[in-house]
Prior knowledge:
By secondary structure, this protein is mostly helical.
Amino acid sequence: MSRPHHANRKDLSLWAVFRAPIVLFVLSLAGLVGALLEDGAWDWIGSALLASTVVATAWALVRSRS
């Protein structure tokens, strides 16, 4: 089993801490706006973009438990 990665001060920059939440926010916002403003394919694209937050959260939970 590999040893857990311990973050040092260099890893804890603002960008390192907020990178994933910012990306998920942008994906969610694009999904909401696209699904609300357009019909057809945008409904499916919007659903996929909104689901990305659920998938990322589930992935992080599974990864943290293993």
